[in-house]
Amino acid sequence: MKIIGVAACITGVAHTYMAQEAIEQECKKRGYDVKVETQGGMGIDNELSEDEIAQADVVIMAVAIGIEGQERFEEKEDAGRVLTLNPAEVIRNPTAIIDKAINLVK
Amino acid sequence: MSTTMKNIINDLTKAFNTGVSYMMPTVVVGGICLALSLAGGDATAGKGMVVTNPFLKNLGIIGSAGFSMMIPILSGYIAYSIAGKPGITPGMITGFIANMPIGDNHVQTGFLGAMLMGILCGFLARWVKKWKVNDTIKTIMPILIIPIVTTVIIAMVYIYILVGPIGIIMKWLIDMLSGMQGGSALILGLIVGAMAAFDMGGPVNKTATAFTLALMAEGIYGPNGAYRIAVAIPPLGIALSTFISRNKWGSDDRRMGPSAAFMGLIGITEGAIPFAVKSLKTVIPSIMIGSAVGAGLGMVHGVECMVPHGGLIVIAAVNKAPLWYAIDMAIGVIVTAICLHILRPTIENNETK
Lengths: 106, 353
Prior knowledge:
The complex is a heterodimer of chains A (106) and B (353).
Chain A: E1 2-8, H1 15-30, E2 33-40, E3 43-45, H2 50-55, E4 58-63, H3 74-78, E5 82-85, H4 87-92, H5 94-105
Parallel strand pairs in A: 1-2, 1-4, 4-5
Antiparallel strand pairs in A: 2-3
Chain B: H1 3-39, E1 42-44, E2 48-50, H2 54-83, H3 88-98, H4 110-129, H5 135-180, H6 185-198, H7 203-217, H8 222-244, H9 251-265, H10 273-278, H11 280-300, E3 304-305, E4 318-320, H12 322-343
Antiparallel strand pairs in B: 1-2, 3-4
């Protein structure tokens, strides 16, 4: 299972990175491949490449604002493989969110 | 609620959040620079805060520049969130127009007008993006067609359809206020205060400013005193609320509290805008009630201010009842914080560390 994601909150100081950590930790616990791009106050970090996006099974969008490069995920969206939610939800309950994301593949 | 309606509301919430997200650093840079500059000035009758130190003057230039950028950035990124890159230019240009005086009545719609411009530009640009055109034209769509079509249409709609009626209403408000001069001081104060807070720099606020300045020219300083109490209350009241009602604000907002308090003391109402944009229906009523109470009390206590600037820093220029000036302001601030506490929902699972 390969999971990628984007995290972006309003101020881009705390929640963005907390959401990234929550997704990464939960996925690593389960032994999934994971990479989360952050679009915070410092700009884009850990940017996802086209290949990584193409190979991903599921995309988790933990975003509260409009992000840069949304169009990169259009194909995944058409395939119904994108889960969009608020960063706070992932931080609060990563297990349930990853379960929900996995269900998109089944 | 139908799904399309829900989608639109989701889009709008996200768009406002995006706008605030990009605007926030600008508010901080502009507010802090302007406040430091003004804090080093002298309150001068008829002129406001006069800054003489050259370095502080230059700091003031940076601050004003930040504040003039703030509104276009807000509208530009609201449009960006809805339409992507092609939305930025139309959003910024129309937001800039919303924030400058237009027509005979000098209509300025401030941040509320800019939010509307951002939304309209966003949706129009998104629609133009979907036009089916041949490949030659397609290459020039993002840099030529979309920005020009969107900017010109929305700006013209604003100038020809919106500005006229708003100007007429502003004129009517000034006439009405002038008619009330000499009537009940309390009611006049309540109205001036509520107007000051309503749109923070928009047409209603500007009408109240114009009214109090006109009276000052005639040597009547009371309404100006009340108005100057009112302008400080929104940011101060919100700041107090973020300090005491910690479970009603997200961590993002709480972090902005101290800088809002600072701006309030210096009389910069704009410090409240980022909070208001995110939740118009809880913030606007609260600050209107708080400012109305503060200004109403100020009128009753006969506070008179000689300078066209607000906040606690002009207290030296309050020539009548300066103590009441501070007390009435504090009461307005507390009322605002209480209203916010009542109106705002408690955020569950909010880390209040």
